[in-house]
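Ticket #457: bound-state structure for adenosine-5'-diphosphate.
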Amino acid sequence: MTRAISLRNVTKTYGRNVRAVDRFTLDIAPGEFVVLLGPSGCGKSTVLRMIAGLEDITEGELLLDGERVDGVAPGERDMAMVFQNFALYPRMTNRDNISFPLRMEKSSEDPRPRVEATARMLGIEDILDRYPSQLSGGERQRVAMGRAVSRRPSCFLMDEPLSNLDAKLRNHLRAEISRLTRELGVTTVYVTHDQAEAMSLGDRVAIMRGGVLQQVSRPRDVYAVPANIFVATFIGTPRINLLEATVHAPLDGRMSIDLRRQRLPLPEPLSPDHQLLRIQQGRRIVVGLRSEAVRIATPAEARPGEVPISGLVEHMEYQGHEALVHFNTGSRPAVVADLESPRPAPAPRRRRRAPGAGVLSRWMESAGARAGSDPAPAMGPVVAVDDPDPFARETPAPGAGRPATGTSDLVVRTSPDVQLRPGAQVPLLVDLAHLYVFDVEGRRICPAPSVLPGLDV
Ligand code: ADP
Ligand code: MG
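RESOLUTION: The complex was predicted; output attached.
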């Protein structure tokens, strides 16, 4: 048996000030695999624990197969949880660990055939008579999975089950979890902060930030049509390029997007999406370009929808199957708040203001202050632009495409055979069909929210 899980406007507060989950609404279909994804501290485990009944709901409703379950004890919800830290009984053999939930059920059925079948499914028949301390991390996690599976629960709840394993094993077990849950057809809610894991496992991915659900979509839609700048930045490696920009819309000329030193002319006749940009004239916007939306080629090679710019090579990252070229195009990178775990508010810095930037700078400072002091900054703006030294306080993640000292603003994916020397000025073509525009609060304005290009929805 597998079941539907519905959360309606579910809020969880701890004490007076900590709003760990804020009006969370999600319907999970029977048999569906949903991944809760977001940075550390965004409320993923809290949602999972509320579904399991390990945590009370402060406000809102939780329904299983359409029925409210307030007051139904965790043990009666017929769910199995798998945790990051494996949680096995050290003094029991692995066999006893796996059969423990079956023995707890006190049914007259002999648990042995089920334990054997589960062990076969997980490839751990040979280690059943050992103790957890005699196993590797991957084997231990398989035993923990076995314990969850053997009971044939109606739901699996998994909280970062692979986070303690090394990368190779993680990929291997990821594939096994995918196969296993599909075979069993059991509703699964899986928590992770790893976007690659989320994208490869989930039927749908639910992205959270500061306790608030940002978007729930199929993996490919999360990548192709991110609801806002936070989602666009959280998903995808290398990270999407985000550039500060303004819309230039003269009454008697061609509309363009101004990237400080260079412009992206918008092709005439304007697409409906680009027409919408007209109302942004004069306002700050943020342009998002994934590393595959730009290619190294001359203006003469432009295909319809591609416009030329140029970039100075800062450095190249060789990746084996591809290379990432870091360019300086003279634009200014925009920063997304809260991408990593919540940080303490930075000490207020005195800075010289660029002429005309006063309102924005003040707004940004207040946004920064909010992000640090308010436990639920979720409704606040996502992007902070106009920071003179945007990456100074960021730790560059591997492949995040942000060198610690360089001034690159655009990372472009290219063939590993391309050889470019630092300092070279290189012609680039930007594919406008893959250009995202966000307003200063981080909402996506282009593609317009109602238009989902190329999606079979
Ligand atoms: P995640 O699993 O996404 O890392 P959690 O759901 O564990 O996040 O936590 C969400 C927020 O709730 C965090 O700010 C965390 O500090 C807070 N929190 C979690 N559990 C408690 C608790 N028992 N008491 C107070 N605050 C808590
Ligand atoms: Mg957690």
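RESOLUTION NOTES: The first strand starts at residue 5 and ends at 14.
TICKET STATUS: resolved
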